[in-house]
Amino acid sequence: EAGVAQSPRYKIIEKRQSVAFWCNPISGHATLYWYQQILGQGPKLLIQFQNNGVVDDSQLPKDRFSAERLKGVDSTLKIQPAKLEDSAVYLCAGSNKSSGANVLTFGAGSRLTVL
Amino acid sequence: GQQLNQSPQSMFIQEGEDVSMNCTSSSIFNTWLWYKQDPGEGPVLLIALYKAGELTSNGRLTAQFGITRKDSFLNISASIPSDVGIYFCAANAGGTSYGKLTFGQGTILTVHP
């Protein structure tokens, strides 16, 4: 079984520029999550999708962050314009009911550095 | 909001020693999980706990779901160099928070050969 694919693995941009991250979860994982992990901290949920619908985006800074999962498979997270405090690893994860609703499988993450 | 307080923040041990770390909260949770994260990788699930009082083992790892549902601990026995990494507790409150995990701050484990 292929794992969670994320790209790019690393991105360096200047503040006020834009960036987009892509994720393809494990096949059959209907629920997809984007987490933000700032250096030295645990991951924090940004947004949760069930198939192509948003379940929870209460922690997503909507003035600059957006995410979509149009066909209910892969997903894109965009930041525009980026701020210095957005420097973090952006982790994508998936889950399904057969593996346990709260058992998330994470990708390796996309590390963003904002200068 | 819900917070998990994980301790210790870091540990330096000798190979072969046992390790214990824990996670506490003022909130009640229905599920507790322990993840390990290696440098440059995402968290990998070690153990999932679903019932208060549950004690579960996975090889040299043992974890317990506290009776009060507000805490959990993870023990690693006879540590080896590949145990090095960051260990995170995570928890889910159930109900409408389906699938949403709150994470602790992590415990950095260093094992000296």
What does this structure look like?
The complex is a heterodimer of chains A (115) and B (113). Chain A is built from no helices and eleven strands. Chain A is mainly beta and 115 residues long. The mean pLDDT of chain A is 94. In chain B, strand 7 and strand 8 form a beta hairpin. The model of chain B has no long low-confidence stretch (mean pLDDT 94). In chain B, the strands form two sheets. In chain B, strands 2, 4, 5, 9, 10 and 11 form a six-stranded mixed β-sheet that branches. Chain B is mostly beta strands and 113 residues long. Chain B is globular, with a radius of gyration of 14 Å. Chain B has strands at 5-7, 10-14, 19-24, 31-37, 44-49, 55-58, 61-65, 71-76, 85-92, 102-103, 107-112. Chains A and B meet through strand 5, strand 9 and strand 10 of A and strand 4, strand 5 and strand 9 of B.
Sheet/helix structural class of chain B: mainly beta
Task: Determine the most extensive contact between two protein chains.
Answer: A-B, 25 and 23 residues
- Strand fraction of chain B equals over 45%
Strand content of chain A: over 45%
Our count of helices of chain A gives 0
Q: What characteristic shape of chain B results from the CA principal axes?
A: globular
Gap between N and C termini of chain B, in Å? 40 Å
**Rg of chain A, please?**
13 Å
Topology summary:
The complex is a heterodimer of chains A (115) and B (113).
Chain A: E1 5-7, E2 10-13, E3 19-24, E4 31-37, E5 44-50, E6 53-56, E7 65-68, E8 75-79, E9 88-95, E10 105-106, E11 110-114
Parallel strand pairs in A: 2-11
Antiparallel strand pairs in A: 1-3, 3-8, 4-5, 4-9, 5-6, 7-8, 9-10, 9-11
Chain B: E1 5-7, E2 10-14, E3 19-24, E4 31-37, E5 44-49, E6 55-58, E7 61-65, E8 71-76, E9 85-92, E10 102-103, E11 107-112
Parallel strand pairs in B: 2-11
Antiparallel strand pairs in B: 1-3, 3-8, 4-5, 4-9, 6-7, 7-8, 9-10, 9-11
